[in-house]
What does this fold into?
Amino acid sequence: MPEILIYTTKICPYCIMAKRLLDKKGVTYNEINVDGNPGLREAMMQKTRRRTVPQIYIGDLHVGGFDELYSLEQNKKLDTLLVS
It folds into this structure.
């Protein structure tokens, strides 16, 4: 199973939904909360070229945010990524 990384903040509803979907899939993930740490947010922005959270990686693949993660699930492509 590839490493899953998700950048989040505490009050972000999309972060909560993304984590719930991953929890439902029974996968473990590393969460990096960027609240109150400008250095972590800056590192996220350098890596993803985006400012918003969540930002999700499955292995080396930058999935994007919750909308992209949910789209993968709806199109029956998420499970394949989670086991490759």
